[in-house]
Amino acid sequence: MLKSLLDSKNGRIVAGNYTALLFIQGANVILPLIALPYLVRTLEAERFGLVMIAQTMGVFLTILVDFGFNISATREVSLLRSDRDKLSQLYWNVFFVKFCLVVVSFLIVLILITFVERFRVEPLVYVLSFGMVLGHAIFPTWFFQGIERMRVITFVNVLAKVLFTVAIFFFVLSPEDYEWVPLLNGGGFILAGIIGLAISFKYVHFKSPDFSQVKILVSETASLFVSNFATSLYTSGNTFILGMIAGDALAGVYSSMEKLVLAIKNIYVPLYQAIFPWLATKEETKITMFVKKMMLPVGISGGLISGILILIAKPLLHFIYNDAQIDSYTLVFQILAGIAFFSALNMLLVSLFFPAIKHYKKRMYALVIGGLFNLLVAIVGARYFSIYGVAVSAIVTEFFILCIAGYFFSKPKIEIAGT
Asked: TM spans, by residue (predicted)?
């Protein structure tokens, strides 16, 4: 099946989409390597930590607004793309739900900055960070993935990220300029969202939301939302937890390292995103065979990446950040480096296999159990072992999720209600 894909017209489409998405991921790796060291030195650890905590809150709200449509809607679009009328109905159904969730998300921000002391101290930072939520909501990434027009996503996203990176050097000149970071970041997301939204209109026509279909859509996607939120508990939540317990400065140190590791681990995301629309149209037995053939090369490459990061950890951190405080926590980065191996295999199962066969509940169980496990371990770890405890919780959680997902994969006859 893998060879037939590579030799077919579909294979060329997948390869083109992968190249486009890889270009985005390259920007996601290179541009932060330019901006992050500058922000760490200019804002200093405490202000940088504050900005990263606010950004983490934005990530949580983005997951709420996305609601799992990055998987469910992408899959449905790939199946309906030849029927413009049904495709348009789905398009506006999804946007109706997203609009409602944007309103709910902003109300959450207002409640936090009004009633919670931790957020009342710097309310503007959290309000400005909402820009990334709004921009992400209006950019129909799920739609372009489903119709396999990845070049659109590439152009718009890279343009927005380049503008944000360049603007940082003009507007953030001292620690007092920290509010410009969420403003520029949110502005980049909103600009990308408006452009992406305008381009998507050429593929659909307007239809009023069908509330009976909306209800079914929300019901089918709810488990994906729970899964994605659980994922955020260990991919983004650790910075937030550390900031609440150990302070903004250590949160800034941890975030600077975590962002490097996550950017590197996410080199697999373009591959899985490019394959998903094609794979979702296949029979379950063929999907299983395809994923089994990918396990060995994915595992080997993930292991090599982790090993290299561990070996070059100290000179890499010094070269990128040139910050004595960050250098002193090199061991934390070496612990986090193991994520590149475990997450490569995790994503193969939870981001590609289970969604492709529409076993959303199995995906949810693996991620929810892992997310709750991380929440408990990270809180205890942060309280008793500070930044080291949080780093250990991150890698142990990745291994734990791999074990659960691997068990479900090896026991396909296990039935879970709703899968």
From this structure: 20-40, 52-69, 90-113, 125-145, 152-174, 180-204, 294-313, 333-357, 364-381, 387-409
